[in-house]
Every structure is written in structure tokens, then in C-alpha cells.
Amino acid sequence: MLAIVTQGPLGQVIGNIVHNAMTHAFRGRSAGTLTVAATLQSDWVEITFADDGNGMDSTVLGRIFEPFYTTRFGQGGSGLGLSISLNLVTGVLGGSLQVASEPGRGSRFTLRLPLQAPSSVTV
């Protein structure tokens, strides 16, 4: 079991992305790698979370940000983590969250945030 300590909206987003990778990316495997990297770009920071796990097909990929969508129905997940994360990133932090994935080739989440969070954001 992986314990992730999160504080504030950014901590919750990071915790949700890492938790999903640990829960889904390596299912059925004994090992895998999750790489987290940050790059400063002018007045933005880009944080990437890339795993070498199972990846997602286009059906799953197209739905992962929907509220209550889960591939583990009845197994403990609420299907809210990535939906909440997307709403926090766009509605509170003023950024964007994108994902790219292919079956057997892992997944890459790209979180892009302004260095200065907006005082208010309209969604």
C-alpha cells in the first residue's frame, strides 16, 4: 500500500495521479516505473507523470475525466479522482491537465500550471 500525503489543491491533484498510476498502470505486473519531471517554461511550470505500465485503450482514455467513471467498479474506487483533479487544475489553479496513452505503452499525464495562480477562475 502506498501512502500519499497531499495538501491543498495541487497536492490532491498529484496524489490522485500517482494513486491512479499505482492502482492501474501496473496491474498484473510485478514491477514498473513512474517518472515525475518538472520543467519551467516562462511563466508556467509543466509537470509530467509518465509510466511504463499497461496503458489505456481509446475507450478508457476518452472517459477517464468523467465523474464516477471507473474500470474497477465494486473494487473500492469511486471514479472521482481524475474528475476532481481536472476540475481543480482548471477551476482553481488556472492550468490544464492532458493525458496520452496506448495499450502496452504506458501513460503520460501532463499538468501545466501558471507560476502565479489566478485570484479567480471562471470554468
Question: Could you characterize the architecture of this molecule?
Answer:
This protein is an alpha+beta fold. The protein has a single domain, classed as Heat Shock Protein 90. It has 3 helices and 4 strands; from the N terminus they run H-E-E-H-H-E-E. A 4-stranded antiparallel sheet has the order 1-2-4-3. Helix 1 packs antiparallel against helix 3 (81-91). The mean pLDDT is 87.
Q: How is the topology of this model organized?
A:
Layout: H1 8-25, E1 34-41, E2 44-51, H2 58-61, H3 81-91, E3 96-101, E4 107-114
Antiparallel strand pairs: 1-2, 2-4, 3-4
Helix pairs in contact: 1-3
Fold-level CATH name:
Heat Shock Protein 90
How many individual helices? 3
By CATH, the superfamily comes out as Histidine kinase-like ATPase, C-terminal domain
CATH architecture annotation: 2-Layer Sandwich
Widest sheet: strand ordering: 1-2-4-3
The total number of structural domains is 1
Distance between the termini: 35 Å
| Principal-axis shape | globular
Q: What is the H/E order?
A: HEEHHEE
Total number of strands: 4
Structural class: alpha+beta
Please tell me how large the radius of gyration is: 14 Å
In percent, how much strand structure appears in the residues? 15-25%
Helix content: 25-40%
